[in-house]
Amino acid sequence: MTDAERLALVDELMARYNSQDAAGYAALMTDDAVEAVYRGAVLRDGNVGVRDGLAAMFAEFPQNRAVVHAAFAVGDKVVLHEEVFRSDITPPFAVISIYSFVGDKVDRVEFVR
């Protein structure tokens, strides 16, 4: 994949995240995809784990959304600076997310918070 293709894929992933489309989000990930804390605990394991975990989070936080402030292609990774809003009444939090790829899908996302 080119830098532009990786950036476009992550842009589509974020669009699906912000529309709370857990199944659509997971469809852009490999079967063995992982979402994890940077250099730490796995949050969601496998494509089904990502889908189900996001569905549960969206049910808990129906106003959840992320604003991407910057996106960079760095080597074979994409790095985002995001601001995540759980609701209109709680303060947002900043996240750096690092996306790794296998073929034309996301294989791993690591969150720095």
Short description:
The chain has 113 residues and is an alpha+beta fold.
Task: Produce the secondary structure layout.
Layout: H1 3-18, H2 22-27, E1 29-37, E2 42-45, H3 46-60, E3 65-74, E4 77-85, E5 93-102, E6 105-112
Parallel strand pairs: 1-6
Antiparallel strand pairs: 1-2, 3-4, 4-5, 5-6
Q: Tell me, briefly, the overall form.
A: globular
Q: Provide the β-strand percentage band.
A: 35-45%
- Compute the gyration radius: what is it? 13 Å
Main sheet properties: 6 strands, mixed
Biggest sheet, spatial arrangement of strands: 2-1-6-5-4-3
Give the N-terminus to C-terminus distance in angstroms.
28 Å
Structural summary, described in words:
It contains 3 helices and 6 strands, in the order ααββαββββ. The protein has one domain: Nuclear Transport Factor 2, Chain: A (Roll), CATH 3.10.450. With 113 residues, it is of the alpha+beta class. The radius of gyration is 13 Å and the shape is globular. It has helices at residues 3-18, 22-27, 46-60; strands spanning 29-37, 42-45, 65-74, 77-85, 93-102, 105-112. The protein has a 6-stranded mixed beta sheet. A hairpin with a 7-residue loop joins β4 (77-85) and β5.
